[in-house]
Amino acid sequence: MFNPSNSPGHLTFGDLSRCWSLITDVGVIQVDPDYKIVRCDTNFETLTGYSSAELAGTRISDIVVLELPLQELCNHGHLATELGGKGVPYYLRIRTLTGTTVVKECKVIELEGERAGFVLFLKDVEENIKNLFERFSGAFLEDVNLGVLLVDTDYTLVEISEVACKILGLEKEAVTGKPMNEVFMSVPIEYHLVQSTILDGVIVRNHAMSWMNDQKRYELLLDSNVLRDKRGVIVGAYVIFKDVSNLRSLEQQVERSDRLAMIGQIAAGTAHEIRNPLTSIKGFLQVFRKSFDQLGLSREQEYVEIMLDEINRVNELVNEFLKLSKPKNAKFQKTNITGVLRGLMPIIQSEALLHNVQLSYETENHLPDVIADQEMLKQVFLNICKNGIEAMVDGGALSITERVDVQERSVRVEIHDTGPGIPLYVIDKIFDPFFTTKEEGTGLGLSVCQRIIHDLGGQIRVSSKGFGTTFTICIPYP
Predict the structure, then answer these.
(1) pTM for the whole thing?
(2) What percent of the chain has pLDDT over 90?
(3) Kind and range of the H or E element at 159?
(4) Of the candidates 324, 354, 387, which is a domain's last residue?
(5) What distance in Å separates the CA atoms of residue 437 and residue 425, rounded to the nearest whole number?
(6) pLDDT, tens only, 157-207
């Protein structure tokens, strides 16, 4: 008995005649050297809707999409796995009588002798392709740097990628098979990453949203859509998202730097013009205060005191403006962060005692030196610590922790307070010039701090969830 899997790639028409009737589980087409169909088996007739008589004499290209010549397919061994092929299978696209296209796996064997030509053995590849996509989807979920969630029509999470688990702070085994409302139970419904409307066919493209995982904040770009079967019926939905925190942070840094540079230029140009009249006004008011004191005019003297306080306030604001312009006398040199913080401890401690705040400081042994201006770093640490202490109006705890990130080659200082936290709708604005939640604040302190750290090639990150706020200052070391 002839077995196609033992064929060397060539056989005579007599061999084909002896085995033709034995091949019942695959479609078979015979074509002549001019690529005209000679005949086909009943399986191929059922598949296409054409009879063998209708196809006889028709060029195979009228019904089959050939991307390579049959000789090349035969010689290079694009063979079906079950028919003895060891190479990559060749997938043949076939047009049916109804106008649809079906895909089959194909093995080509060349005929020899007076009835030369080719025989195409076809095999259903639906299961093979299904397995291929299953392998791809498995590799996709494991390897790709995207968060992926799959839900079924019952709004149940059926699959989640490792990246999604890391960003969302979930355990894969704990959430797989759970209803989505239960997965995001601890999050207000408006912040659910997946909404139930997704199963109604609501498509989302490039939707930006924020997600807090413990003390870390992620900026996400999200896409979602439904999954349908061959009949067009919705069988589930997917959500894909990418962490774009670094990109968003860079964009915000550029915007803030531009604004700070503009304000600094304006301040540098106008500070002199403002200070001159202020100095004159302040001098005359001090003369009036002395005269009123001598005359016993206490009420007038009180008015002068108020005006002098307001002038001092304007002066301080001008000084804050000047800090936004790049310092001319910055001394960048090797600086030890631990030394800077230890020098500030008495000042921070006294401020903490005034506000009933417990202070803790955790140092890191052998902290690498950074290239920075020591006085400017003092300004940054003191400003952020003071903000944290003042945020705890009823007392609390302020912790300062040093860390080394060897992978990113940076020194990190984390300043955490147990205050009320920063609302999500405000946290994006705290580094903006003039934005403040304090009644008497200028809104320039954190802007200056950010500019100083950015000039060192570092960054300041802030996270706040529920209660408490953590500022992380990252400064690269050589």
Answers:
(1) 0.41
(2) 2
(3) strand 157-160
(4) 324
(5) 13
(6) 888 888 888 888 888 888 888 888 888 777 666 667 777 777 777 777 777
- Strand 37-40 to 357-362 pairing: unpaired
Q: Tell whether 178 and 136 lie within a shared domain.
A: yes
- Residues 218 and 261 both lie in one domain: no
Range of the domain at 54: 4-124
Distance CA 19, CA 15 (A): 7
Query: Where a domain ends, among 179, 212, 243?
Result: 243
C-beta separation of 147 from 164 below 8 A: yes
Q: Look at 432 and 10; give whichever has higher pLDDT.
A: 432
pLDDT tens for each residue of 185-196: 776 666 677 777
Rounded-to-integer distance, Cα 75 and Cα 222, Å: 48
What letter represents residue 125's amino acid? V
Domain count, the chain: 4
Q: Does the pLDDT value for residue 69 go beyond 60?
A: yes
Spacing of C-alpha 246 from chain mean position = 8
Distance, in Å, from the CA atom of 343 to the CA atom of 291, rounded to the nearest integer, reads 44
Distances in Å between the alpha carbon of 9 and those of 14, 70, 254, 337?
Answer: 15, 12, 66, 75
Same domain, 459 and 348: yes
Handedness of CA 54, 56, 62, 68 (dihedral sign): positive
Q: Looking at residue 417, what DSSP letter applies?
A: E
Statement to judge: residues 171 and 299 lie in one domain: no
